[in-house]
Amino acid sequence: MQNTYFFTGFPGFIASRLIASLVHKDVTARFELLVQPYRVEMAQAAVNELCQAEGADPERFVLIAGNITETGLAIGEDYLDELEDRVTHVFHLAAVYDLAVPQDIAYRVNVQGTEQVCQFVRRLHNLRRFVYFSTAYVSGDRTGRILETELSVGQQFKNHYEATKYEAELRVQELRSDLPVTIIRPGIVMGDSKTGETAKFDGPYFVMRFLDAFAKFPLPYVGASEARINLVPIDYIVEATVYLAHADEAADGVFHLTDPDPYRAREVYERICQELIGKKPTYTLPSALIGSALAIGAFRRFVKVEKETIVYFSCQAEYDATEAQRVLQSAGIKCPDFHSYIEKAVAFYKLHRDDPDKMILVR
């Protein structure tokens, strides 16, 4: 039977990269892409660009105007009936990824949207895999070693993004006893390790935006924590996910796609300073002071940094990726070392730092 891949989250960066990879891996596959109605034109342009870049037949792609938060994903019942027999793989990536997202929006999209996708998945007659994109940070405020087999241990959460992604993963976990489910928990996603390409300057790129604002002054370290920060390039996420989506031993698994040997946040910050500004920090400011400054709207809009970002540089969690490493080892898939790609990431940022499409609106 021909594979049909059903995606939410297109034309987002990770979904687009996954589809580009799958186009080559599975040359006869069909792609059904659920897109919000107002994004259909943008999605069509993305499909056209992908087909041109990858040499793929446009007939392999179908754009479906819909909405994950509505019953039946807002897809017509007749077409749903067709998808029931046709879809073999579901990749659910649609979510609100903003750390500053309000609770009501986060809950509607991340939790209720995932509930609707789960109901859709239950309808499929020929499902071979349901791949759900969670996050390593469903761990919330936990510290110490965190296993892939763990989820609910009484943790609290640093923001509504984490809380709702946790709630969403609970819904997906309920399917594991009946369906072939693969849950992906990425660390903090960086750009491509070979080209530096990324879609948005969020996460660690907020550090670069902060440094841009104070490049002419002596640079501080932010806090004296020995915490490590878990960064992973997008190409590792894509290569690992495509493999896990087809590996039989990953059909009922949860995988930390994290760096097994992460660096201290202080070292990461120092390397970014050197690459971007050409100098090292010379003194230390308490992270609480920076956090208080970012709580002031005028200041965070000036530096273009969300206040929720700061806590991730003192996060004491250690993400055990034993199961992911075990399964991926047979395919020779490894997470690239941070120092091997940060130069490219910073170079890409320098080239595109004024591109409004890559900016995150900071309120």
TrEMBL record:
GO process annotations (BP): long-chain fatty-acyl-CoA metabolic process
Organism encoding this protein: Tumebacillus algifaecis
Signal peptide: none
Pfam family, one: NAD_binding_4
Designated name of the protein: 3-beta hydroxysteroid dehydrogenase
GO MF annotation: an example: alcohol-forming very long-chain fatty acyl-CoA reductase activity
Taxonomic placement: Bacteria, Bacillati, Bacillota, Bacilli, Bacillales
Residues covered by the Thioester reductase (TE) domain: 8-240
Entry's transmembrane regions: none
Domain of life: Bacteria
